[in-house]
Amino acid sequence: MPSLPRPTAELTADDARRIALRAQGFLGAPDRRAGVRGVLRHLGAVQLDTISVLARSHELIPYARLGAIGRKAVDAAYWTSSPAGRSASPHAFEYWSHAACILPIEEWPHFAFRRRAYRSRPHWNHELPDGAYDQVIKQLRAEGPLTATDLGGAKRTSEWWDWSGTKVAVERALMYGEVVCVERRGWKRVYDLAERAVPQALLHDELDDSECMRRLVRLAGQSLGVGTRADIADYHRLKGEQVDAVIADSGLVPVTVEGWGRPAWADPAALAAPPRGRHRTTLLSPFDSLIWERARTERIFGFTHRLEAYVPKPKRVYGYFAMPVLAGGRLVGRVDPAREGRTLVAKQVTLEDPRAVTAVAQALLEAASWVDCTNVRVERVDAPALREPLIRELAAALD
């Protein structure tokens, strides 16, 4: 790591927490006029995942910041429909960032470094049959936009991992950047040639790796507000040495944060005015960018976050899809939700502070209304003494 410049500011732990909350859209009035697209551009990336409990994660992200927006409007904001088989100008595309993410279309040029890296990748998890790649490109050119089913089928068997040769080929083309997904139909990716779907002004991979890194490091710093080298690298899954090479020229400024014990960098705009405004009270998707990096979440909030959907049931502590509860700028508990008809079921609620009961009730009620549930049922509360107070809060609001 190169020698570090002198910090420009000293932040308390509370300063850093509030700066992070504002940068992520949870402190202060949200820009409702910009809507879901504004949230996407503000965050720089919204993670996708197949799990749907209350809703899919890409719906939960804007909901957590804007409140009970229409769910159909969320998908419409991300993915542009294709009238008469021709793509309208897209607002977003899907690619590998922190994970599989929706990204603002204007960031297409800045992922050129990753497309180049994939093209030179020495091995892949799925074998590509001879001729399959060229056939997919030929078919998309003649008939696109198409789903994997349209192209000939996504799977060879019913196993989720057993991709057909066509699916392997089109996903390889997506990673190379020859194909792009700018739309979903019933959760299926719709593929098209990048040369047809991406605006021409953005299409060509002319930026070198350092230019891409500089942009993504700056964007990560802006989206985090303040972060360590590891925080910044994790946001778009860069390597630490890639961050080191460009951070001095990224526009971020070095700072120290009380209790962090390591160098940090901040968005200078985040330091220009103290974070003020109203805090959101909400359930967070386990895939929310506020809590992407576990060490950062523990450092800022003193809160251990782990998705347990892929943990064997007997070993789960908090539940299948435990959603952290954000209130007053702090993570105050967890709710593992489910839906039964028009009832939102809190299968497991984890909280230790009696002062969090009202906030958890508020978060549950708003979420229930958003997903068109008219009732909330609490099954288990880890602190048994708080179960009845929580039920009373919910009952009073629902009467």
Could you please describe the fold and organization of this structure?
The protein is α+β, with helices and mostly antiparallel strands. It contains 17 helices and 14 strands. The strands form four sheets. Strands 10-11-12-13-14 form a five-stranded mixed β-sheet, sandwiched between helices. Strands 1-8-9-7 form a four-stranded mixed β-sheet. A three-stranded antiparallel β-sheet has the order 2-4-3. Strand 12 and strand 13 (343-350) form a beta hairpin. Helix 11 packs across helix 13 (240-246) and helix 12 crosses helix 13 (240-246). It is globular.
The low-pLDDT segments are 82-87
Major β-sheet profile: 5 strands, mixed
CA gyration radius, whole angstroms: 22 Å
User: In which order are the strands of the major sheet placed?
Assistant: 10-11-12-13-14
Strand content: 15-25%
**What is the helix content?**
25-40%
Summing up helix and strand content along with how strands pair, one would put the structural category as alpha+beta
**DSSP strand count:** 14
What characteristics describe this protein?
single chain, 399 residues, alpha+beta, five-stranded mixed β-sheet, four-stranded mixed β-sheet, 14 strands, 17% strand, globular
